[in-house]
Amino acid sequence: MKYKLVIFDLDGTLLNTLDDLVDSTNYALSKNHLPTRTLNEICSFVGNGIRKLIERSLPEGSSDTVVNQVHLDFTDYYIDHCNDKTTAYPGIVELLEKLKKLGVHSAVVSNKADDAVKQLCNLYFSNVIDFALGHKVGVPCKPEPDSVFMVLDEFSCEKSEAVFVGDSDIDIQTARNSGMDCICVSWGFREAEFLKKKGATTIISSPDELIGYLV
């Protein structure tokens, strides 16, 4: 095998979480008597972590106090509703099962809060994801490479032995900052043409295609 470890993004790569992100964002906005956002708007806001999602969703010039309160309300709501409408993309579970049979480790690195990442991975991928890491206080979000390096250390794996798989420009930058190869997926929150403009060199349109890049 070309790689010993595949590090996946979560939202837009393994799971379609968009509807629950929209509902949770708009719940928090409505609770604070603020205008809500459309699905397409929120889709364009995701990728840099929940706080950045909230900042982008708020009216321009909102104070830190407002950002903090809406962020808190989102977090409280989302942890109980993160799986209301979320689904695994077709073929993902089968892909992860194939990787396990091939002896390739699978991990998740996400800018979503660590508790929610672990909860969703346990629900959908408890037997096929070996390690899941979300955002923790004090650890920079992607595209900074810190969380990726933590996963590499967990598996005693060199960056040349791992590949990053994601659906966004943030994932492309993360792989670049980590010194790793990157494979982008076109079924997530960003279209193939957008990814190409952001520097993607390998783009797959179905989970089955990934195996061909690992051997």
What features would you highlight for this structure?
215 residues, alpha/beta, Rossmann fold, DNA polymerase, domain 1, six-stranded parallel beta sheet, 46% helix
Specify Rg, calculated over alpha carbons. Answer: 17 Å
Distance between the termini: 5 Å
CATH architecture of the largest domain: 3-Layer(aba) Sandwich
Strand order of the largest sheet: 5-4-1-6-7-8
- Run of helices and strands: EEHHHHEHEHEHEHEHEH
CATH top level assignment of the largest domain: Alpha Beta
CATH superfamily of the largest domain: HAD superfamily/HAD-like
Give the uncertain stretches in residue-range form: none
Q: Quote the average pLDDT.
A: 97
Q: What's the domain count?
A: 2
Strand content: 15-25%
Per DSSP E runs of 2 or more residues, the count of β-strands stands at 8
**Number of helix segments?**
10
